[in-house]
Amino acid sequence: MADETAVTDTDATPRQHGEELTFNFSGGDSAELARHLTGRSLAARLPALVRRSFALAWAVDRRSTITLLACQVISGLLEALGLFATTAALSALIQSAHDPANLVAALPSVAVLAGAAGVRAVLGIAIQGLSNRLGPRISREAEYRMLHAATGAEMAAYDHPGFNDRYDKADRGVEVSRDMIGQSQNLVSSAATLAAAAVVVAALAPILLPLLVLTAVPQALASVAGERVTYLATLRTFHDRRMLSMLRWHLSHKEQADQIRTDTLAPYLLDKYRASGARVDRTVDEAAWQRAKISLLGSAVSGLAAALMWAGVMVLLGTGTIGAAVAGTLVFALRSAAGGLHGIVGYGTDLMRTGRYLDDWEEFIAEAGGQRLDRGSIVPGRPRHVALHQVTYRYPEAESDTLHEVDFEVRQGEIVAVVGENGSGKTTLMKLLSGLNLPTTGVVTWDGVSTRDLDPHALWRECAVVPQEFARWPMTARENITLGQPRPEADDAVRRAAATSGADAVITVLRSGLNTLLAREWWGGVALSSGQWQRIAGARAIHRDAGLLVMDEPTSDLDARAEHRIFTGLRELAKDRAVVLVTHNLSNTAVADRIVVMEAGRVIDQGTFTELTARPGLFRDLWLLQHDRISSAGLEGAP
Ligand SMILES: Nc1ncnc2c1ncn2[C@@H]1O[C@H](COP(=O)(O)OP(=O)(O)OP(=O)(O)O)[C@@H](O)[C@H]1O
């Protein structure tokens, strides 16, 4: 597969030395599927796909689905009826050439023909309308199921190579799912047209049936081969399409907009965009050309078979095997059959393509991208003791462990500070304490029960986390604090939490207080500064009233007054909570009952602030370094 996804090194931007971005391609199965894209497998798969699309439609709107199916069946029956009426009408018309009185005899058949055509037209409009109604509903349901599955995946899924690819592919499935019902109904209606025509041909001139099949087969095979070419091209452009979407995001989002300007980075990134785009275009062009050649061959062979069939009609007519009226009806039936066959091949191919994307979607929702939360069902109470016992943690696909045999504990009523240099594993430790990740070896316990055995959702209800990168939800200030889970005391609880984190000062100046929408200006909201947001994030965690409060650099953006307020309020919070605090500002650790010092994924020391500043070690070194800047500025002891 590697050769199929490899990117040719012929882009416009000169390659520089260094590692290139690679996306972990999880398309092995898809590539395998492409090799098995054969006429036989498609024929076997189409009925299942039609069933699947009607099952999806059934799930979102039963009444419309039943009506749609009923319209399809009636329309097919009317098609056959119309074709049979054609013979009677034609023979009466031909005889009327000799005796105009015979025209009257044609009237009933003509009436049937006209009636059937009229009703079919009305049914066609109804079918179209119902498909248009069902399509968007199916797509929304598909998206809902995918989002539901994504939120039910292990957190570690995001570190697993391939998870995001699976999500992207499933997302494509959602996009195309709306087309599936239309394609299925067109396929069914083409099949009904063909069946009706085939019944008429079989009744009037059975010898023509094999020739009819012969006109269809080459086109169908060409269509399948073309589809395989397109699919393989899609796989080959996977890397560049991902690259394009990543660049699109970086080039257009506000987060990097300032740096793109001040670093004059735009031309470099736009060049990369063009290079990836050019590679995609080249691959797509090659595939389109190859597909055109295959289609030409299929059409030529089908055309020959069609010529044979029409010659057959002429022979039957010339030898007197059939009369003029039957020959006329055969012309209608064969044209109808050709239309039906064309529809089956075209819509069948479309449906196969949609079906492949839907396979990816289905696979994702069945397994949450292979990362479904699969833990125990024990519901924890408010934790009194949370601990790590000899825990080692390695990120998925990482080359080495991030945490090594870590022992750690925190009890209700206690504040434990975790310190260490960048990359020493503090955030990773927080993720394990809060049950976001499970240890690779060793065990994390909440009141003696392993986090593996606890119901994860119940665990998270007892856990409040202020992560380094907290979410800035485009919702009101109130919702940003309650997260849709208000306490019985309603706004009183919100205001209390806000007062503890300093968010009250932010809310007071907002145009509509707690009702103010905190979102970007172009969404009609109010934009907050980083520090103001951090106060809201603090209030959010405090409002949860969970038994374990984990704060990872909760005051990094706060001014001195706000920071002071948080740390002086921490003891009150810890009365009925276990509090774990990660900070680089070592003065803040003075509030902790115990300080745990980490280095390179290990706990290397612990003690009180007084103990650790008094004895030699990493903590004292870091403390002196921070202190050094204050002394060298001559500010020590300044009021
Ligand atoms: N998602 C991830 N996948 C693989 N490795 C990771 C991931 N996240 C972190 N790491 C690695 O784990 C190590 C510890 O990271 P962690 O974020 O726990 O450190 P930290 O002590 O919190 O650092 P900082 O003080 O900079 O916040 C780092 O070397 C990092 O490379």
TrEMBL record:
It is a multi-pass membrane protein. GO terms for molecular function: ATP binding. The chain crosses the membrane at residues 66-94, 106-130, 187-214, 296-316, 322-347. Keywords: ATP-binding, Membrane, Nucleotide-binding, Transmembrane, Transmembrane helix. Residues 66-353 form the ABC transmembrane type-1 domain. It is found in: Cell membrane. This is ABC transporter ATP-binding protein. The lineage of its organism: Bacteria, Bacillati, Actinomycetota, Actinomycetes, Streptosporangiales.
